[in-house]
Amino acid sequence: MKPAAQPLPRPAGFTLVELLVALALAVVISGLILTTLALANQTRRSHAGRAACRAATGRVLQQLANDLERTFLFPKNEDTAFQLTRGAAASNAVWELSFARTAAAAGASDLRWAEVARVTYRLVEENLTNLTLTCASRPLAGPAAFQPPVTNAVFAGLEQCEVRLFDGQQWQDTWIGGGGSTNGAPRAARLTVAAQRGSARHVATTEVLLPISLKFEPPKRDKVQGKNISEIR
Question: What are phi and psi of 110, to 5 degrees?
């Protein structure tokens, strides 16, 4: 009688079915990992974009508001006239805002040493969704008063930047003061700024009360004998 046949030993390794199953699992796991990483990167970029938009709008609003809160006006002095013009009247800019302001010198708290200057903000359209806001200033006293204005701030990549002025009854898109005009002192300004970075967008609006609604005249004479203070530069 012949002995029963013994089963052949199984060769070492994996079967084709096992390899296919393992490969499918690896593809699924890799896909899940890549999807998670992509979502994490998208979320990080979105947060960074929103932060950049908030920072951009915040810088513009802060500087504009700080300058507008320090405006002053001599009704009969054209150097301090408050003006908001648009289009051709604004040298073909979207708008141009020009006024006089005073601010304490850097590191100084004594307003007797304040800087008195005329500032001009110009909004230039690079394309439909890319606006650049510049700020130029020229001192109204001292040797620099005879020099051209100096651009000291540039805000690029804005989607929207709007200024409107309140005359006590309604909001105005333009303002022509000076020349003894009774329309020389708006009471408030409304500022709206929008910025977009990638898919993130942020819009900020603020309103600023302008102190120049309290009109005043400079003293007729100062300590310099025979000199009118409004004539000193």
Answer: -90, 115
Q: In the beta sheet, which residues pair with residue 143?
A: none
Does the model's pTM come out above 0.90? no
Contact by Cβ (8 Å): 136, 150? yes
Residues 107-134 have pLDDT tens digits of: 666 666 678 899 999 999 877 678 999 9
Integer angstrom CA distances of residue 5 from 12, 70, 81, 173: 21, 105, 113, 102
Classify 159 as helix, strand or coil: strand
Q: Residue ranges of the alpha helices (H) in the chain?
A: 16-68
- String of DSSP letters for 110-156: -GGG-EEEEEEEEEEEEETTEEEEEEEEEESSSGGGGSPPEEEEEEE
Q: How far apart are CA 165 and CA 186, in angstroms?
A: 6
DSSP state of 71: B
Tell me: pLDDT of 88 over 70: yes
Of 181, 179, 208, residue with least CA distance to 63:
208
Distances (CA, A) of 3 to 6, 7, 217: 9, 12, 127
Give the pLDDT band (50/70/90) at residue 164.
very high
Sequence-distant (6+) residues with CB within 8 A of 108 are 114
Task: Spell out the domain ranges in the chain.
Answer: 51-231
